TrEMBL record, chain A:
SMART domains: REC (SM00448)
Keywords: Phosphoprotein
Tagged with keyword Phosphoprotein: yes
Response regulatory domain ranges (all copies): 4-131
Taxonomic source organism: Ramlibacter algicola
Protein name: Response regulator
Superkingdom classification of source: Bacteria
Keyword set includes Phosphoprotein: yes
Automatic annotation (TrEMBL), chain B:
Protein's UniProt name: histidine kinase
Membrane topology summary: Multi-pass membrane protein
Subcellular location(s) of the protein: Cell inner membrane
Region (Disordered): 714-736
Cellular-component GO terms for this entry: plasma membrane
Domain Histidine kinase: start-end pairs: 508-723
EC number: 2.7.13.3
Reaction catalysis annotation: ATP + protein L-histidine = ADP + protein N-phospho-L-histidine
Native organism: Ramlibacter algicola
Length: 153, 736
């Protein structure tokens, strides 16, 4: 079974465009969508609303940097500090080109840092590349999540 | 002084206040509060006579209480067939009564009257202190009848310098001579300070001992205020050696300090009655007051002048950027303030000078040495004596006055005075002529012949008012420097705040402005993908415009962000081969526009530049991109890159045969979002040249442009070389 992709995105337009991009990239992985950092952590740690979800980690976390409640950097920090999640790939997917954000993300152990291109075709290309690399080509660590069909919005 | 003065300190040990003897000019009786005789001079016929005289004078003693410490004239007594003037004063619990042969009251003939009538009007008319001193010498000689009168002042070391003289024929002149300090030992000086007149009528006199009542030691009697007090045998020998058998000294006391003496000499013994002595003493007091007044006036005038100068200096400094080296920008004020011929400002390793000064390296070493002394204000008029390294520049800096502005840093202001080679004439060679006889007794010098000494290595002395004024200046400077530091700190804080705001702004722009642009472009794309075939051709065109506009806005945001980052990121400089950089860029542009016909002319001598490689690449890319862009309308685009070398640095020049521009717009060219062409003719965000300028100026370099419409344009820049000159000034601060 393919592991799902966890997409953490608060902006509904960005979310829609990203989902379209993922759709067009023809990845078979299910996409789990959460809308803020707190939900993302609940999902990853199987707490709160996600207490009952099956065990296993996503193939990749596509994490927006600027999020309500708990921001992307904080989510990343928590993921890297949690032994069961430490090896889960995290890709920062963001508008920000700020050097300090890039530096901080890499310090915290991000796997990739992708600035969303303005033009849609390039955007689709970038998302497709990401999905293909992290969800298909990348050999996930043991214990990754089995596919499920639920979407949380 | 090149040779040490002899040690006459033994003289200073002599108990001259309590000699136990008097001069034989008169008689002395000392009584206690009950009128009992306790001591008397041995020249009375007998004790009874001494007691009788005291008894006759006793009735007048009541008048003493109000007359201060000095001896007061109590009229005269008739003792048998002798009439005796009586002078009396208290000495502790005792009354010291001194008797001299009576001189008839002189009325308007009295010397004191003539002094008031004759001398006072002259003194009032005199303009300078020197005039007054000369008048005083003449008047003193007239009043006293002595053969020679000298007015002299003691300097800080106690040497006496003759300032005025009146002498009869046959008297050697001592005008402008100096008397060594040892001529007047410390305790004699103190006596002159409290008792303002002393007469020695005959240097060959035999002292008359005091006799005491049983159980009473006459040598314990303090004769400080006595008129008849016997003087030191050393001094009498000094007088005899000098050929002076009578002398009188009247003190000039200013602000309770012994300023100088009016010294009278006579070849022959000379008696002076009490009334004449009183007039002489009075003259001394008048002179003392005048000296004090003139000095005070001069001091006030000097201080006012110095304060005025201080204020001018401070206000000049405050008007400027407030840095200390600005002091030397107004040399006239600075030098006048300390009456110096040169001045320097030392700020750690750096040194600025004006006027005649030692070499900067010598000043730096001296400043370091002075700073090590840890004094706010330090001065000397004989630097070489304390700092031998000053010998090579003694001509320019024999004297130094230094202000230390900071406790932490070596920040000093120094003034220099040149060497004054001074010829001093001594009344006798002060280095010789001291004898100690077999009994250990000191004999004073025997020669008073004029002797000249050349004094080297000294400057004019720094006066106390000059030192005080520079102290005042120091406080003002510290105030300015501190205020300047505060202002700088404030500016830095403000800059930091602005930078933070700018960062926050950039951050917001990058997130919040890029996202909607992306959304517009994205949704339009989706619509075109999904519905493009069913939409009218016109709708498709409109959508294309929407997409282009959104994409353009997105690029603009990216360019803005890049530009702002350019100002904030630290420069990482290293040597960069500009030829390689240009060649790579040219290859890139050629690849991007395969259909165009370029004629590149790249000089092979393009320089190594000391720059941040990334930023330099951005700058060059912008310049080349402009050349590529504005030659688009040409069949053959000719772009030429050549080396530029100026005194300020090395750089490149990019010339093209493109559309050019009007030279009058050159100043607008490098501004942010300045465009000289219609947007539809040439694409771009108008930020490229602004980036170039920012990059070049951050490197401390200069950028320029030349063009003519339709004749092409030329853009060039130079960057400072790594190995020369100071670091670039932070010019970019202005346009942040």
């Amino acid at each position: 079974m393919l592991k799902p992709i966890l997409l953490v995105e608060d902006d509904k337009r960005d979310l829609e465009l990203t989902l379209v991009a993922l759709e067009r990239s023809q990845l078979a992985n299910e996409v789990i969508v959460v809308r803020d950092g707190a939900q993302a952590l609940d999902y990853l740690l199987r707490e709160g609303d996600f207490r009952g979800r099956d065990e296993g980690n996503p193939a990749v976390v596509l994490l927006d940097l600027k999020l309500p409640k708990v921001n992307g950097l904080e989510v990343l920090q928590k993921v890297r500090a949690t032994p069961a999640l430490r090896s889960t790939p995290v890709v920062m997917l963001t508008s920000s080109q700020e050097e300090s954000d890039v530096v901080r993300s890499y310090e915290l152990g991000v796997n990739a840092y992708v600035v969303k291109p303005v033009e849609f075709k390039q955007f689709v290309g970038a998302i497709a590349d990401l999905g293909v690399f992290w969800a298909v080509l990348n050999e996930p660590p043991p214990g990754s999540l089995k596919a499920s069909s639920r979407r949380y919005e | 002084m090149n040779a040490p003065l002899p040690d006459l300190s033994q003289c200073a040990q002599e108990p001259i206040r309590v000699p136990g003897a008097i001069q034989p000019l008169g008689w002395m009786s000392v009584i206690d509060g009950n009128g009992q005789l306790v001591a008397w001079s041995a020249n009375w016929p007998d004790r009874d006579r001494a007691a009788l005289a005291a008894g006759l004078a006793r009735g007048a003693l009541d008048r003493l209480d109000s007359t201060g410490e000095g001896p007061a004239a109590l009229g005269h007594i008739e003792l048998g067939d002798q009439a005796l003037d009586v002078l009396a004063h208290r000495s502790g619990d005792l009354y010291v009564l001194e008797f001299e042969p009576h001189v008839r009251e002189a009325g308007i003939q009295a010397p004191i009257y003539s002094l008031a009538r004759h001398f006072l009007p002259q003194m009032q008319r005199a303009e300078s202190l020197q005039d007054i001193l000369e008048l005083a010498a003449v008047e003193m000689k007239r009043l006293s009848g002595f053969g020679r009168t000298l007015v002299y002042r003691f300097d800080d070391e106690g040497h006496g310098e003759v300032l005025a003289e009146a002498a009869d024929r046959g008297y050697e002149s001592y005008a402008d001579h100096r008397f060594p300090a040892a001529d007047v030992p410390t305790q004699a000086r103190e006596l002159y300070r409290v008792n303002h007149i002393r007469l020695i009528a005959d240097a060959t006199y035999e002292p008359v001992p005091l006799l005491g009542a049983p159980g009473w030691d006459p040598s314990s009697l303090d004769l400080t205020y006595s008129t008849l007090r016997s003087v030191s045998p050393v001094h009498l020998e000094y007088m005899r050696n000098m050929g002076t058998l009578a002398s009188m000294s009247v003190s000039i006391v200013v602000r309770n300090k012994l300023w100088g003496l009016i010294s009278c000499h006579n070849h022959e013994p000379m008696r002076l009655p009490y009334q004449a002595r009183a007039a002489c003493e009075h003259l001394g007091r008048l002179l003392s007051l005048q000296v004090a007044a003139k000095e005070d006036n001069a001091e006030v005038a000097t201080r006012l002048d110095l304060r005025h100068l201080t204020l001018q200096i401070v206000s000049h400094l405050a008007d400027s950027d407030g840095t200390l080296q600005r002091l030397v920008a107004e040399p006239a004020l600075l030098l006048r303030m300390a009456r110096a011929s040169g001045a320097a400002v030392v700020l750690n390793e750096q040194c600025w000078t004006c006027g005649e000064t030692p070499e900067p390296s010598q000043i730096a070493a001296l400043a370091k040495w002075i700073a090590g002394r840890n004094q706010d204000v330090w001065s000397t008029d004989r630097l070489v004596e304390e700092y031998p390294a000053a010998a090579p520049f003694v001509a320019r800096g024999a004297g130094v006055l230094a202000l230390s502005i900071s406790q932490v840093h070596q920040h000093l202001v120094l003034w220099f005075r040149p060497e004054l080679v001074e010829t001093i004439r001594w009344a006798g060679d002060p280095r010789k002529e001291v004898d100690v006889d077999v009994g250990g007794r000191i004999h004073p010098r025997r020669s008073f012949a004029s002797w000249q000494e050349r004094v080297r290595g000294r400057s004019a002395p720094w006066t106390s008012s000059e030192v005080a004024a520079t102290e005042e200046l120091r406080h003002a400077l510290i105030g300015i420097v501190l205020r300047r530091a505060e202002e700088l700190a404030e500016v830095a804080t403000e800059l930091g705040r602005v930078n933070k705001e700018l960062e926050a702004f950039s951050y917001t722009v990058s997130h919040d402005l890029r996202a909607p642009m992306r959304h517009i472009a994205g949704y339009v794309d989706l619509v075109q993908d999904m519905e493009g075939k069913t939409l009218s051709e016109r709708s498709n065109r409109y959508l294309a415009h929407v997409k282009e506009a959104a994409a353009y806005a997105g690029h603009l945001v990216d360019a803005l962000l890049d530009f702002s980052r350019m100002g904030r990121a630290a420069l990482k400089r290293k040597p960069v081969n500009s030829l390689l950089l240009v060649q790579e860029l040219v290859a890139e542009f050629t690849r991007q526009e395969p259909t165009r016909n370029f004629e590149w002319d790249i000089s092979h001598d393009l320089p190594m530049l000391w720059a941040d490689p990334f930023l330099l690449q951005v700058a060059l890319r912008n310049l080349l991109a402009n050349a590529v862009k504005y030659t688009r309308t040409r069949d053959v685009a000719r772009i030429r890159v050549t080396a530029v070398t100026t005194a300020d640095g090395d750089g490149l020049k990019v010339a093209d045969n493109g559309v050019g521009f009007q030279q009058k717009y050159v100043s607008k060219l490098f501004g942010v979002f300045q465009r000289l062409h219609q947007a539809e003719d040439f694409e771009g965000t108008g930020i490229g040249l602004a980036s170039v300028r920012r990059i070049v100026e951050r490197h401390g370099g200069v950028v320029w442009a030349q063009g003519e419409p339709d004749q092409g344009a030329e853009f060039g820049f130079t960057l400072p070389r790594a190995d020369v000159g100071p670091q670039p000034r932070p010019r970019q601060v202005k346009d942040q």
